[in-house]
């Protein structure tokens, strides 16, 4: 599950004992074997650069197709094991942090818009998962009858719309809550700096507040990237490996310790390499 938490492989692949994965050293490329389809090529990049991610995946796909015979139909496109992937076989996904939309209850509007254009909004690890830390995954639902450029355009369009709505929602939160919003953000810092037992769900909620606080310039002494790394480091599999324990109660205690120690280093202005 360690690689699931780092978004290198899917939960489906992790549960299949007759599967495999090839991973690039920097973890930006992974090729999954026997996931929901026989081969799944995944490329990851920063920001909303779907065109680049697609170009890398397409280059790998061409290389594989030169040696493998893919099932292909001139009318339907690529014939995949999972029917919803039939066509181009491509899914474009974007991970988004949408705390203000979530807190104001505005996500329903975004769900409605996305369903009308064939786009799904799922939890942090995709299908059947929760949006821990208000992190959502936006991706196309179907590939049949759509070109790669159509898919990228649609997902990018909804993502930009979500960004615009989130910015406006944060402005509403500021006007609605005033000092209470700042208080909520700094209470999250205080809670994480002093807690002795912490579940991953509660930690993600507090880290989401802190991440939003950094992005809204309430906090200037914590590094955004370090907080994002911390969001991964606190997950169950990472904690189990870090502390060599699968006991849930001990894991929650260890997680609280890990968060306190990490925040102390970050708040002290020290260079902190997260595990």
From TrEMBL:
Any single biological process term in GO: phosphocreatine biosynthetic process
Swiss-Prot/TrEMBL keywords: ATP-binding, Kinase, Nucleotide-binding, Transferase
Pfam families in the record: ATP-gua_Ptrans
GO cellular component: extracellular space
UniProt-annotated binding residues for ATP: 7, 40, 91-95, 122-127
Domain Phosphagen kinase C-terminal: 1-169
CDD domains: bacterial_phosphagen_kinase
PROSITE patterns: PHOSPHAGEN_KINASE_C
Enzyme Commission identifier(s): 2.7.3.-
GO terms assigned for molecular function: ATP binding; creatine kinase activity
PANTHER family, sorted: ARGININE KINASE 1-RELATED, ARGININE OR CREATINE KINASE
Similarity comment: Belongs to the ATP:guanido phosphotransferase family.
Protein name per UniProt: ATP:guanido phosphotransferase
Source organism: Clostridioides difficile
């Amino acid at each position: 599950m360690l690689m699931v938490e780092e978004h290198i492989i899917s939960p489906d692949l992790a549960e299949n004992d007759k599967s495999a994965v090839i991973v690039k050293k920097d973890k930006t490329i992974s090729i999954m074997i026997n996931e929901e389809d026989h081969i799944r090529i995944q490329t990851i990049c920063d920001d909303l650069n779907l065109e680049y991610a697609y170009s890398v995946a397409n280059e790998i796909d061409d290389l594989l197709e030169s040696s493998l015979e893919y099932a292909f139909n001139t009318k339907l496109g690529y014939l995949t094991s999972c029917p919803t992937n039939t066509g181009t076989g491509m899914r474009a996904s974007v991970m988004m942090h949408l705390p203000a939309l979530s807190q104001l209850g505005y996500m329903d509007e975004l769900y409605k818009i996305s369903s009308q254009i064939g786009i799904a909004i799922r939890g942090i690890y995709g299908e059947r998962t929760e949006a821990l830390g208000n992190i959502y995954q936006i991706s196309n639902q179907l590939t049949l009858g759509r070109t790669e450029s159509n898919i990228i355009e649609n997902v990018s369009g909804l993502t930009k719309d979500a960004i615009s709505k989130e910015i406006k929602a944060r402005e509403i939160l500021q006007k609605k809550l005033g000092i209470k919003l700042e208080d909520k953000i700094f209470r999250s810092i205080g809670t994480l700096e002093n807690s002795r037992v912490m579940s991953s769900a509660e930690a993600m909620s507090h880290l989401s507040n802190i991440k939003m606080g950094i992005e809204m310039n309430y906090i200037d002494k914590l590094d955004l990237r370090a907080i994002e790394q911390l969001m991964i480091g606190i997950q169950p599999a990472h904690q189990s490996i870090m502390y060599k324990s699968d006991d849930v109660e001990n894991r929650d205690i260890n997680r609280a310790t890990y968060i306190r120690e990490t925040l102390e280093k970050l708040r002290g202005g020290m260079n902190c390499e997260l595990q």
